[in-house]
Amino acid sequence: MSETGSTLNLRTLKESDLPALTKLLNNRIIWMNLRDVIPFPYKLEDAQDWFKFVTANKHNLCLTIEVDGHICGIISLDFKPDVYRKAAEIGYWLGEGAWGKGLATEAVRQLTIYAFGKYDLNRIEARVFGWNLASKRVLEKVGYRHEGTIRNGVIKDGEVTDEWVMGILREEIT
Q1: What pLDDT does residue 56 have?
Q2: What class, spelled out in words, does domain 8-124 have in CATH?
């Protein structure tokens, strides 16, 4: 349950979600906080290519964030290989109309609890661009800690910024 009393559900991504997700993601403000693998402008063909990638990728769990039956974003886990195999990276985005309602915090909380219960993970981490204070705050509210700053580690749309590494350990989740 979110701060607004809305019912938030994380569910498996379906191909029928792609038109709604395309509409939400074709937003420059959201794009500025995502890695360059996501193009802008964002088209249905981009969503279809991405859907094929995530559904074929065994090292990724990608879920739709749905509120009161309406799609409002995506949340995912990227399971790390090799010596990092007890770790995963969480990533998420919400459509602009869903901001400021506690939905991202609830989605991160739900996926973090689920991931530690279902998978043999010691830690989950997130990487946040230095200008994205709202995302850093979402993670802090769930219990993620600022573990370090990679100074000038990101360039997005010609702008250089720091990258914050946020992390939570299995025993820290409440």
Answers
A1: 87
A2: alpha beta
